[in-house]
């Protein structure tokens, strides 16, 4: 009965969550753990796409000596227009002169290039080094034509959309379009760019090295159709690129500056290759791709042979805006006693900046940035330095975390758990899952992970309760999670209202079902012991079946509609959520109290029936059963905290069913039907004696509990009742 009731209850909670208009689009994918939402202590969240929108805006282009922001993009545009108009005027005058005039630049000793040519190179690199495909929506009626005629037929800018696996790349290509260099076509072997003057430049794609989370960079080798030049372009995270580009004195500093503004940085570089260099590379590359052993390592080694002394072109910064209402939501979760850990793959500075702007770390709080450590001794020193600080947020990188966990796992987790907020940056997906398991193992508390991309799936599945956000990165996370939401702010209502209700209701329902079973067992035990332990069943088949189903099912199950606090109150006072994590709604103490209540009531009902009905002993079944049903209905009424009209309907429906069944189940109410041959006497039931005796037994079994409950609410009221009064 407990199993069935709880499973039906969980299904009902899931239905309520999905039907909640305040959090539209929420999907419950696991019907077995809605109560976990009510007792979370740790929330581990991803940054990009979870706290932020994953909608990028191009903010900054830095060339080393000069930096362009949003207000100076028009300068870049005029430089691009000028440089391309010069190239084309040379081209039209003399088709060969354009090649030699640009050649000496790359082969001669390093000449300081003009700003204009550097901008030209940088924008061209950004326009070529990516994995973006322009897509043209076909106009209605021309769907039958081939791809090429479709492109010819509608080359207009309004009709073009870009598709790529990462929103960063789309932003960069849209930006080059805004300054005049437009990607108009791409297939497997070539790319076409449109200059501000409307000329089409074609580049053949010779090789492409896609982005991976290990290498943190992507590269492409292209050949210019007009001049035949071969160029290797590359872009990636500053960590990966700083060792690849030629020596410079500004990259690290500028990356740090941009990261402190909360921008995501990408470093763009190039290398001109001669025909011989490329042919040599290609043969080695193909050879490596054919090797049977360690293929990935060999391929990577060949590519790395190219990645040396590359010319640094520029540094780009894009901004990822915070999602709506992230700040109040994080504030609410913090007040609810939930500790929030942000695990992200981003740079330390970017992560810290977002942590501050999202109020994950409050403005007044100190932040302890864990210095990079590589050895046991360094980790020991750094942990000691951290131990001296009180109530400060921790920011740590993935590598340092790995070292600390290797040597000082217990100490580190103990210290980190005391922090109000923890930010782990440069985390790999496996590290995210490892941190979740650590918290579960060391604290024994409930953890919840929330993320939006494929890289968060391992963390979501490791946590006690996984929440996925349907974002720009597809549905991997939301399909792997237990609950899927559309925006981060919905998590507040999901935990404070639905989590709270599910947990409280399941606790009440579970204990009530146990009470219902125990009370009838106690009565049978008392009955048998009075009759010299004779194995006579007190209630015949149908009464036993009807007791747990038709007579008490509806009122008991209506406990899933009970709520102690109105949703608005629960959201206004998130502190109420703290009480739930202590687990006081369902503990050994409450369970034993219910066992005692069951034994007390079962004993009273049976003894009362035996004492008051010595003369009409034949009718003991009818009397005790009637009193039992009434007691159960009254106990449900006692347990309920907020009445719902369906609860009232359920109470009266059950009572009605019972009264109706007295008429046609009369043979069940005799004892041992055959031996006594006593049938239910309708005349007896309607007498005043029967009614007052049943009432007396019921009152004795229930009144003390009502009084106790009243006194308890008077002298130690629960925190929520102080708010509702």
UniProtKB/TrEMBL annotation:
The chain crosses the membrane at residues 541-561, 591-611, 617-638, 645-664, 684-708. It is found in: Golgi apparatus, trans-Golgi network membrane; Membrane. Mg(2+) binds at residues 46, 48, 452, 456. ATP binds at residues 46-48, 169, 211, 235, 264, 344-346, 426, 432, 455-456. It catalyses: ATP + H2O + phospholipidSide 1 = ADP + phosphate + phospholipidSide 2. One of its GO terms (molecular function) is magnesium ion binding. It comes from the Eukaryota. It is a multi-pass membrane protein. The active site is at residue 46. Its main location: Golgi. It is an enzyme of class 7 (translocase). One of its GO terms (biological process) is phospholipid translocation. Residues 85-108 have a biased composition (Polar residues). Its cofactor is Mg(2+). This is Phospholipid-transporting ATPase. It comes from Phoenicopterus ruber ruber.
């Amino acid at each position: 009965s407990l199993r069935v009731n709880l499973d039906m209850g969980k299904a009902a909670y899931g239905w309520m969550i999905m039907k909640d208009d305040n959090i539209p689009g929420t999907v419950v994918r696991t019907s077995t753990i809605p109560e976990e939402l009510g007792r979370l202590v740790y929330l581990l969240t991803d940054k990009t796409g979870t706290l932020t929108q994953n909608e990028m805006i191009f903010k900054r282009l830095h060339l080393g000596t000069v930096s362009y922001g949003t207000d100076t993009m028009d300068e870049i545009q005029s430089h691009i227009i000028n440089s391309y108009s010069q190239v084309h005027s040379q081209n039209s005058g003399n088709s060969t002169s354009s090649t030699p005039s640009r050649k000496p630049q790359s082969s001669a000793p390093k000449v300081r290039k003009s700003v204009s040519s550097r901008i030209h190179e940088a924008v061209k690199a950004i326009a070529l080094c990516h994995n973006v495909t322009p897509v043209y929506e076909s106009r209605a009626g021309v769907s039958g034509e081939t791809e090429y005629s479709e492109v010819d037929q509608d080359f207009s800018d309004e009709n073009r959309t870009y598709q790529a696996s990462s929103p960063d790349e789309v932003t960069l290509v849209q930006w080059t379009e805004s300054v005049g260099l437009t990607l108009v076509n791409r297939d497997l072997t070539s790319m076409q760019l449109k200059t501000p003057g409307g000329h089409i430049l074609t580049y053949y794609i010779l090789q492409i090295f896609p982005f991976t989370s290990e290498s943190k960079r992507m590269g492409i080798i292209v050949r210019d159709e007009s001049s035949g030049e071969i160029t290797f372009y590359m872009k990636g995270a500053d960590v990966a690129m700083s060792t690849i580009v030629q020596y410079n004195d500004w990259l690290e500093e500028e990356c740090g500056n941009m990261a402190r503004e909360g921008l995501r940085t990408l470093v763009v570089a190039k290398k001109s290759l001669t025909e011989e260099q490329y042919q040599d590379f290609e043969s080695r590359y193909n050879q490596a791709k054919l090797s049977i052993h360690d293929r990935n390592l060999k391929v990577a080694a060949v590519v790395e042979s190219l990645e040396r002394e590359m010319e640094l072109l520029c540094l780009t910064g894009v901004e990822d805006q915070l999602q709506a209402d992230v700040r109040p939501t994080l504030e609410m979760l913090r007040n609810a006693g939930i500790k929030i850990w942000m695990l992200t793959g981003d740079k330390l500075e970017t992560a810290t900046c977002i942590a501050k702007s999202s109020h994950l770390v409050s403005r007044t709080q100190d932040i302890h940035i864990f210095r990079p450590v590589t050895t046991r001794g360094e980790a020991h020193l750094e942990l000691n330095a951290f131990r001296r600080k009180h109530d400060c947020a921790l920011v740590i990188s993935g590598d340092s975390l790995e070292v600390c966990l290797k040597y000082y796992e217990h100490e580190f987790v103990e210290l980190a758990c005391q922090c109000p907020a923890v930010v782990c940056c440069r985390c790999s997906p496996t590290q995210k899952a490892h941190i979740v398991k650590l918290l579960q193992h060391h604290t024994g508390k409930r953890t919840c992970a929330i993320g939006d991309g494929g890289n968060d799936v391992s963390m979501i599945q490791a946590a006690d309760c996984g929440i996925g956000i349907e974002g720009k990165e597809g549905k991997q996370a939301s399909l792997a999670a237990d609950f899927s939401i559309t925006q981060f702010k919905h998590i507040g209502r999901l935990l404070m209202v639905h989590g709270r209700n599910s947990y409280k209701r399941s606790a009440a329902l579970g204990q009530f079902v146990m009470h219902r079973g125990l009370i009838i067992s106690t009565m049978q035990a008392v009955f048998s012991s009075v009759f010299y332990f004779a194995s006579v069943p007190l209630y015949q088949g149908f009464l036993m079946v009807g007791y747990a189903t038709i007579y008490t099912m509806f009122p008991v199950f209506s406990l899933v509609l009970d709520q102690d606090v109105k949703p608005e109150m629960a959201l206004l006072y998130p502190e109420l959520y703290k009480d739930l994590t202590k687990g006081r709604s369902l503990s050994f103490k409450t369970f034993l109290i219910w066992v005692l209540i069951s034994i007390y009531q079962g004993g009273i009902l049976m003894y009362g029936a035996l004492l008051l009905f010595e003369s009409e002993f034949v009718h003991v079944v009818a009397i005790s059963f009637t009193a039992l049903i009434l007691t159960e209905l009254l106990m449900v009424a006692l347990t309920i905290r907020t009445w719902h009209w369906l609860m009232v309907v359920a109470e009266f429906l059950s009572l009605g069913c019972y009264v109706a069944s007295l008429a046609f189940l009369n043979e069940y109410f005799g004892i041992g039907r055959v031996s006594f041959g006593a049938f239910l006497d309708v005349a007896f039931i309607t007498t005043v004696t029967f009614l007052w005796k049943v009432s007396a037994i019921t009152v004795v079994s229930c009144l003390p509990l009502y009084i106790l409950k009243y006194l308890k609410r008077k002298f130690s009221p629960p925190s929520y009742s102080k708010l509702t009064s």
